[in-house]
Amino acid sequence: MSYQVLARKWRPRTFHELVGQEHVQRALVNALDQGRLHHAYLFTGTRGVGKTTLARILAKCLNCTANGQGDEGVTSTPCGKCDSCRSIDEGRFVDLIEVDAASRTKVEDTRELLDNVQYAPTQGRYKVYLIDEVHMLSTSSFNALLKTLEEPPPHVKFLLATTDPQKLPPTVLSRCLQFTLKHMPPERIVGHLAKVLEAEGVPFEESALWLLGKAAEGSMRDAMSLTDQAIAFGQGEVHHADVAAMLGTLDHRHVLALAEALAEVDAPRLLAEVATLAEHGPDFAAVLDDISGVLHRLAIAQMVPDAVDNGHGDREALLALAARFTAEDIQLYYQIGIQGRGDMEHAPDLRTALEMTLLRMLAFRPQGAPRPAQTPLPLRSQGAAGGAAPADETPAQGGSVPEANSSSRPAQASTEERRFAEEAPPATSPPVDHEPTEKAAPALPPDEETPPWIAQEGQEGEEVEAQSEPATPEAQAVASSTTSEAQAPDPSASSPAPLEGHFGHADWLACFDSLGLGGLTRNLAAHCVVEADDGEQLTLRLDPSQEAMQAEVHVTRIREALAAIGIERRLVLAPGALPAEVETPKQQTDRLAAQRHTEAIEALNRDPHVQKLQQAFGARLIESTVKPTDTEARG
Predict the structure, then answer these.
(1) Total domain count for the chain?
(2) Where in this chain does the record put each AAA+ ATPase domain (predicted)?
(3) Same domain, 213 and 67
């Protein structure tokens, strides 16, 4: 006997052998068991999902003779052994008229077909007309069919099948009982292929079946045909490498390797994986599409783990990989990937575009991409330029470390207001609490450091010397109070000494900026207040409005940041109403920012040079554009 392809050999013979389409199976079985038969059925769906198979099974149910003759002989479980069942399976049942509408579109063909409708069936109980691809009929053919389709003789059943129901006239659709068949999910295809190959005695790798299931695109018939091809390609076996080579598709394991490199923020590994891919000559645009698809599935894995599809057989691997990303990383990477896909046509070559897109993901990730070393400004003398040394540098020998940034106008405005009318304030650090040991270095020129309106009038061409005398005690007191209220701790400065003992909410506010948190983690922590600390467990009360953003990765980062400053505790974030008498770090930051903004506006309004501009040119201060300096804004 000649070889029979798997798609025909394993075609279902009964409803119970049918794979998938349970919604159609249930409706037809109940209708047959209850004797509620319609005269016309329409099966719609993409190729290879079982439209004609369902029609033939239904024809067997209508004509099976194992249960006797007459209407009561109709069954939902045809025997498959009687003459009618065997004839239908072998395609020689005279009362099953199969018509390919794609090859018989003319109205004359339809009329010829309908001429025999009135005659009783020859062999079976019903005369069944199975019209495949019915949407290919011409308008005249549909018109000729309409009357018979609406009121056929009692011994006639019409079974119509189409892949494009939108092309059918509404008058035809209204006369049929319509069933829409679904795409086959890869999981169901892989499961069925495994059973078939085990029954056929063909060795296989499960990962190869996932490639076949994905390539079938929801069609079981296509999956069976591809499996036949894979068996021939692999000399009687089905292996992953053979199937990948046969299909010419990208090995999904390479895409997962790229995602792992992104999770590790490992640029060298990322480029090495792209180089490995390049050896196979892939479509780099398709690679980027696959990466974006994986990022989409990772986002779903984080938000709704049960909703992750298993289209590649990698569901468990994705769930594990999702825990290594933050939500903001995935969202940013996906957005960069989509934009990079659109920019590919402008790139020198596709590989370059892929590499630049992947590197851009790492460069702009929220949790602080590696930054180039910052070279400090050259020193003009023993002190730093402008009189202030960077926070991460050792002060110049014999110099002093200032307590505030030299460009902090709002903090200086309240302390040197009395000097504006007499001379411009020097571009040096604010007064400190101790006597300087040496004379401070001269200030930078106005175009480098000092805003133009601070430059002293009438001193063009002259270098403004920094004041070496200490400030008066009164000015020191004002500057000290202003600085402590208006300037938040600088996260770039060295971490404070480890805290010991009970950790209260005041400690939380004081050390918040030194924790070095960023992105969504910082936003989540900024909406917390300290509720309790027993020395072993620290409980933070979280604003209920931020509960949706709570995730274990953020809790871990906050706990590690606290441990770095000496607060080693189990950390619990408990959403709930916040006490009205305390403020969160976010509320404190907003309050201080508003205070600094108000002080800056008042200082500018009192500035005599600003007043002169207003009087001479009718200038006005745009308050919305007034911002605190970088040092103050970090709070």
Answers:
(1) 5
(2) 37-188
(3) no
Specify whether the CB–CB gap between 588 and 610 falls below 8 A. Answer: no
User: What's the distance, Cα to Cα, between the start and end of the chain in Å?
Assistant: 84
Residues 152 and 268 in one domain: no
Question: Mean pLDDT: which of 181-185, 368-372, 498-502 is highest?
Answer: 181-185
- For 122-144, the pLDDT digits (tens) are 888 899 999 988 998 888 888 88
Three-class SS state of 178: strand
What is the domain extent for residue 268?
A: 252-363
Element (H, E) at 486: helix 473-486
Q: Other CB atoms closer than 10 Å to residue 226's CB: what's the count?
A: 24
Q: Does residue 157 share a domain with residue 45?
A: yes
Assigned domain for 372 exists: no
Q: Report if residue 475 sits inside a domain.
A: no
- The mean per-residue pLDDT over the stretch 472-480 comes to 42
Q: Specify the CATH number for the domain of residue 307.
A: 1.20.272.10
Q: Dump pLDDT digits (tens) for 566-618.
A: 888 899 988 988 888 889 999 998 888 889 888 888 888 888 988 888 888 88
Q: Give the span between the Cα atoms of 175 and 168, in whole angstroms.
A: 11
State yes or no: pLDDT of 60 exceeds 60: yes
Residues 614, 523 share a domain:
no
CA distance 479 to 494: 23
| Domain assignment of residue 207, yes or no | yes
Quick one: how far is CA 320 from the chain centroid? 16
Contact assessment for residue 43 and residue 133, using Cβ atoms and an 8 Å cutoff: no
